[in-house]
Write a structure and sequence with these properties.
Distance between the termini: 48 Å
Helix content: 40-55%
Low-confidence stretches: none
Bound molecules: NADPH dihydro-nicotinamide-adenine-dinucleotide phosphate
Largest sheet: 7 strands, parallel
Mean pLDDT: 97
CATH superfamily: NAD(P)-binding Rossmann-like Domain
CATH class: Alpha Beta
Shape: globular
Strand order of the largest sheet: 3-2-1-4-5-6-7
Order of helices and strands: EHEHEHEHEHEHHE
Number of helices: 7
Radius of gyration: 18 Å
Number of domains: 1
Strand content: 5-15%
CATH topology: Rossmann fold
Length: 258
């Protein structure tokens, strides 16, 4: 029997994960680190980031915590500067921080509309503005970079009372397709991940009683995805040969039909 050496598929890669203090971002940061990437983890809750970094380091990985609000352009640019200085620059951005606050439009929950637009669109754009130059530079030097944006099945399908959230995610998917046109020729792959329901903290922020009931009912009806399911999908697409770009990945709970 011959002994086989595990070659980490993302060794030499530097990944930045936004929204890394819980849910999909946290699981993805841990998974990318297990595949050999150095990871910089961004979110607002410093304590959660510190725990994540110490878990990754305990498993032999390299991780850097940066507490930042992605709605703050200056803070995100400072984070990009730190990633460049400490880790040599990013070649993978998992642009994932987001919030979902469904409610009937006639409730006029304008603060929640604004919160979703500020985080899911402006925050996403701040990270793109800060890190795309590093992705392009890395791709020119090493032949590959990845911009992976977290969208949602709501970008495609219709869900009553999810209009504003769905609108922000339709923006993410359509933006991603356009950016692929610009960045693909520069060896930066652009992907939009569109999950159905994933059990995370996302649902706990919902305040509208009707939406809360709908979510609770759906949990009874089907087995939701886990954050690890999405993490493995991100790891899979980043591990493909440089010529392969999974443009749009829709990942659903088997029991979720729309
Ligand atoms: P979580 O609520 O568990 O994670 C959201 C993350 O975003 C947290 O780490 C949070 O950290 C971070 N975040 C929130 N506000 C800010 C901010 N202003 N600046 C920086 N980071 C911030 O939810 P998920 O893991 O489910 O969500 C991740 C992404 O997946 C979102 O874009 C969501 O829309 C999308 N998605 C989720 C689905 C689901 O069913 N769960 C389905 C489809 C898409 P902190 O509070 O510490 O800042």
């Amino acid at each position: 029997m011959t002994s086989q050496t595990f070659v980490a598929p993302l060794a030499s890669r530097v990944a930045v994960v936004t929204g890394a203090s819980s849910g999909i971002g946290e699981a993805t940061a841990e998974h990318l680190a297990s595949l050999g990437a150095k990871v910089a983890v961004l979110a607002r809750r410093e304590d959660r980031l510190a725990e994540l970094v110490s878990r990754i380091k305990k498993d032999g990985g390299t991780a850097l915590a940066i507490a930042a609000d992605v709605r703050d352009d200056e803070a995100v640019r400072a984070a990009a500067h730190q990633v460049k200085t400490d880790l040599g620059g990013a070649d993978l951005l998992f642009n994932n921080a987001g919030v979902m606050l469904p409610a009937p439009i006639e409730e006029l929950a304008t603060d929640q509309w604004q919160h979703q637009i500020d985080l899911n669109i402006t925050g996403l754009m701040n990270a793109i503005g800060a890190f795309v130059p590093q992705l392009v530079e890395a791709a020119a030097e090493r032949g590959v970079g990845d911009l992976v944006n977290t969208s949602s099945i709501t970008a495609q399908n219709l869900f009553p009372n999810f209009a504003v959230y769905s609108g922000t995610k339709a923006y993410v998917t359509h933006l991603s397709r356009h950016l692929r046109m610009e960045l693909g020729p520069k060896n930066v792959r652009v992907s939009a991940i569109e999950p159905g329901i994933v059990g995370t903290e996302l649902q706990s922020h919902v305040t509208d009683p009707g939406a809360r009931d709908w979510l609770a009912g759906s949990k009874e009806m089907m087995e939701w995805l886990t954050a690890k399911d999405i993490a493995h999908t991100v790891g899979f697409l980043a591990s493909q040969p440089a010529r392969v770009n999974l443009q749009q990945v829709t990942i659903m709970p088997t029991g979720q039909t729309s």
